[in-house]
Amino acid sequence: MTNGAGVGIRRFSCLVRNVLFEMAMNLTNRTLGDIAATIPASTRVFLRNRLDFCCKGQRSTLSEACRERGLEAAAIADEITREAHQHSELEVWAQRSNADLVSHIIEHFHAGLRRDVPPLIEAAARVERVHANKDAVPSGLAAHLDILWRELSAHMAKEETILFPLLLAPDSGRAAAPVRRMLEEHESHGRALERTRDLTGDLEAPANACATWRALYDGLENLEAQLMEHVHLENNILFLRALEAS
Ligand SMILES: [Fe+2]
Ligand SMILES: [Fe+2]
Fold first, then answer.
1. Of the ranges 14-23, 155-164, 201-210, which one carries the lowest mean pLDDT score?
2. CA-to-CA distance for 170 and 51, rounded, in angstroms?
3. Which residue, 67, 90, 113, sits at the end of a domain?
4. In degrees, to the nearest 5, what angle opens at C-alpha 44 toward C-alphas 108 and 189?
5. Residue 246: which pLDDT band, with cuts at 50, 70 and 90?
6. Which residues neighbour ligand 2 (ion) by CB within 5 Å?
7. Do 68 and 102 sit in the same domain of this protein?
8. 120: which of 9, 44, 141, 226 lies 20 to 30 Å off by Cα?
9. Domain that holds residue 74
């Protein structure tokens, strides 16, 4: 390596460090959706602290969201910075094309829902039947998940057959109206996740719960995390691009 090239690399590294430092300093004034789009590891912190970075991602800054949840914004910003250093390998989807995002959403998130939700509904029905006489039994969970699954199936079909092809067309600004409709449906998914927590005592299995019951709640927690990441990529990156272009 020539001396000039070495100096260039050092300057570039220094620039990257400065940008990261600036980002950490300004986190509390940025929206959760913006932070999640540019620092992928931040979503782990948001999930741990029950901060809504998907449906409400564009509505409040980290400061405002933390105040609402009784959390210290500076401590959460530090947690995000630490998580980002530990997981710098995570894909920054905000830097990828619409085509890459759509493929990833269909192949990872839509396929994951189609694989995981029907067995969760069966497990919920089994737990409700076998443990019907226990106080903590999640009565009505299977019926609730069944309704959510119908909504999700119809929603994914609309995205795959109508909206995503529009987003991949040269004039993606025409997608604004269907995007707004999908944003409303995402709000409904968010309410369904809250209802799931209400029905399951915040996904805490009782001490005497059987393995199926525990696996059901672990699966529902994973469903919640995956659905929030999924909606985040759509709301805060893919759909936001279409709205900004319209
Ligand atoms: Fe989707
Ligand atoms: Fe969606």
1. 14-23
2. 35
3. 90
4. 60
5. confident
6. 234
7. no
8. 44
9. 3-90
Residue 153 CA to ligand 2 center (angstroms) comes to 10
Q: How far is the CA of 186 from the centre of ligand 2 (A)?
A: 6
Last residue of a domain, one of 63, 90, 117: 90
CA–centroid distance, residue 147 to ligand 1 (Å): 17
pLDDT score at 70: 97
For the chain, the domain total comes to: 2
pLDDT tens, position by position, 131-174: 999 999 999 999 999 999 999 999 999 999 999 999 999 876 78
Cβ 197 vs Cβ 139: under 8 Å? no
61 — phi, psi (to 5°)? Answer: -75, 170
Q: What is the token pair recorded at 97?
A: 């094309």
Query: Cα of 161 to ligand 1 centre, how many Å?
Result: 11
Label residue 220 by pLDDT band (50, 70, 90): very high
Question: What does the block give as tokens for 29?
Answer: 């004034």
What pTM did the predictor assign? 0.87
Statement to judge: residues 79 and 112 lie in one domain: no
Task: Give the number of other CB atoms < 10 A from CB of residue 143.
Answer: 14
Q: Do 171 and 86 lie in a common domain?
A: no
122 and 61 in one domain? no
> What band does 81 get if pLDDT is binned at 50, 70 and 90?
very high
